[in-house]
Write a structure and sequence with these properties.
Number of helices: 7
Order of helices and strands: HHHHHHH
Strand content: under 5%
Radius of gyration: 20 Å
Shape: elongated
Number of strands: 0
């Protein structure tokens, strides 16, 4: 009896890339949701940053140097871009909660009222 051949890192990466391309061709929306979920879960387990670089650190550095006008312009551009991409629902909720939690009580109440009115007219 012979042992199965050992898989090399390049062969595993090739298989992963091929499977990713196949999934994206067959059902791009579901594949994107799946990959977002994997990244989300890995990030929650603190494996994500080691795998994908220190993006959060770079973003924090940039934000610390940017003016308020810069921040608003980038946030508007990012928001527009995010609306065109697949995003895991946990990520979307975390972003919205982060913005909401930074509001004062008056702005929170006004925002909730605005959302309530929007929902009431969409029924």
């Amino acid at each position: 009896m012979t042992d199965a051949p050992k898989k090399t890192v390049p062969s595993v990466m090739y298989s992963l890339i091929k499977a990713t391309n196949d999934a994206l061709e067959i059902c791009p929306g579901a594949a994107a949701e799946f990959f977002c979920a994997v990244i989300e879960e890995q990030s929650a387990a603190e494996i994500g940053p080691a795998m994908f670089g220190d993006v959060e650190s770079d973003a924090n550095w940039f934000a610390s140097k940017a003016t308020t006008i810069d921040l608003e312009a980038y946030l508007a551009a990012i928001s527009a871009r995010l609306s065109e991409t697949q995003m895991h629902r946990k990520t979307r909720k975390r972003l919205i909660a982060s913005l909401f939690n930074k509001m004062d009580a008056t702005d929170k109440a006004a925002f909730v009222k605005w959302v309530w009115e929007k929902e009431k007219y969409n029924e």
